[in-house]
Predict the structure.
Amino acid sequence: MGNSSVRKALFAGAVFLPLAACNQPQVSQNQSGAPTTQTAEARQAPAGGHPLGANPAEDEYGEFLARAEELATVPVNDIIKSTRLNAGALVAGKKVYAEHCASCHGEDLKGSKAAHAPDLTDGDWRFSGDDFPSGGVNKLPSDVEWTVRYGVRSGNPNARGVEADMLAFDPQYRNQHDLDDYGRVKTVTPEEINDLAEYVLQLTGQRADAAKAAHGKELFLDNAKGNCFDCHQEDAAGNPALGSTNLTRKDLFLYGSDKASIVESITKGRRGVMPDFGTKLKPEELKAVSVYVFSQAAPQPPLQAANQ
Ligand code: HEC
Ligand code: HEC
């Protein structure tokens, strides 16, 4: 993983170190180790399991539906392997979501532009990649659980997004974190930021000035200038180890994909924050909401033999 000092060196143009971990395979994401085509509804009342309605009766708890307390000690990736634990997590998790998450991510989990909170149903996890056998290709409930437990740039030492954020390319807007990493080094002029923004427009399929976008692409890939690829990958599809936005899909932008918003993102930087819930929720609530949120995301195509 490239650390800050490595990035600083890259910015100074002093050395070029291939950052292996940052270039981990970027892939179509899928939801679990096993290829799945199940819908969220099917998972609520899975084949072979006892059919459950949206509001299960009290006597269904136990044999068919785990009580929330039971989830406290079971790893989330194991909860989804059990019909009754999974069903219990979905019922409990939905309630936790409504109470603690909907205010920012929306009642329908589709995110909120005002809160800059991502859509949780798109299956494109900005922060993920812990599955060792697939090299991070397969997405797991534990990817979500870590984000919820520790938050994003929340101040918790285990938070997501601490290592890298979208620095301000105009040094006057840098926060302390970025001043510590990059000082006041200025690597791009306002015209170059404009060309970079044209390239980002082009990446998203929006109308762009071809000549400026071509120059922007050079800057994007230049480790002493834009150095954007270091965090967003060469193909600009984002790096789930860093939580950097996939710049090829405008529906995934948290701060706007129009020209002015892109220029502002590059000039002033962005530093999205989500609170940590590790101490605010009971252990079973934390697990239940992680399983619930994970289950609501669009199942992705089965794993494309990433290790072959
Ligand atoms: C105060 C607003 C706020 C609340 C409350 C909140 N979130 Fe978030 N959440 C955010 C923001 C903002 C981000 C994106 C941070 C960034 O990357 O810039 C985020 C990111 C996430 C992500 C990462 C998504 C991805 O693509 O990897 C998950 C998962 C998530 N939130 C789940 C939850 C859950 C579950 C709850 C409730 C327990 C919750 N959030 C409560 C604001 C919030
Ligand atoms: C040190 C890592 C890093 C570098 C270098 C970097 N970015 Fe980012 N970028 C991020 C992260 C992380 C985010 C997500 C910020 C957030 O969620 O608050 C982001 C977000 C963005 C956004 C906002 C997208 C949205 O969600 O609305 C744009 C646009 C962007 N980057 C473009 C660029 C360009 C162009 C460059 C090069 C000039 C660049 N980035 C360099 C890490 C980086």
